[in-house]
Structures are given as structure tokens and as C-alpha cells.
Write a structure and sequence with these properties.
Layout: E1 3-8, E2 14-18, E3 36-38, E4 46-48, E5 54-57
Antiparallel strand pairs: 1-2, 1-3, 4-5
Length: about 80
């Protein structure tokens, strides 16, 4: 069951939605607007070292150098 990112055209909110089968969100959770569209999302990963430290993160190598989150939806870029 994938988690997709959606954008509300009414309030400009970006939100995540866990999709079961063909179930898609019909309204924005913030404003209840009905004009939502699925966004193209980049997958993220972390590689851990032998003692559990992060040795590589896909978020740190993204085009947004200021990100410290695991997902682009975290900073809004």
C-alpha cells in the first residue's frame, strides 16, 4: 500500500494519503476542497552504518540542499 503526496488547488496544501487499491482522496483534509491532484514524488532512503549511524541519505543529495527531512513534503519544496 503506497503513500502518495497530493496537492490541493484550493488552499495550496500538500498532504500524504495511504492508498488502498484504487482508493484516492476526494477532498483536502485541511479545507475540504475537491480539487486535489497526485504529485510526482521522489523516493527517499537512508543507508545505516554498522553502528546505526546514517552514512548516506537521499534527501541530502536532492536538488534542495537545505533539506534535513526524509521527504520533500517536509520542507515544502
Amino acid at each position: 500500500m503506497p503513500i502518495y503526496e497530493y496537492h490541493c488547488k484550493k488552499c495550496d496544501q500538500v498532504f500524504e494519503y495511504l492508498v488502498f487499491g484504487s482508493d484516492e482522496p476526494t477532498t483536502c483534509p485541511s479545507c475540504k476542497g475537491k480539487k486535489v491532484s497526485r504529485m510526482m514524488s521522489a523516493c527517499g532512503f537512508k543507508t545505516k552504518g554498522s553502528s546505526g549511524e546514517t552514512v548516506r541519505s537521499s534527501a541530502s543529495s536532492s536538488s534542495c540542499g537545505s533539506c534535513s527531512t526524509n521527504s520533500c513534503s517536509g520542507c515544502g519544496h
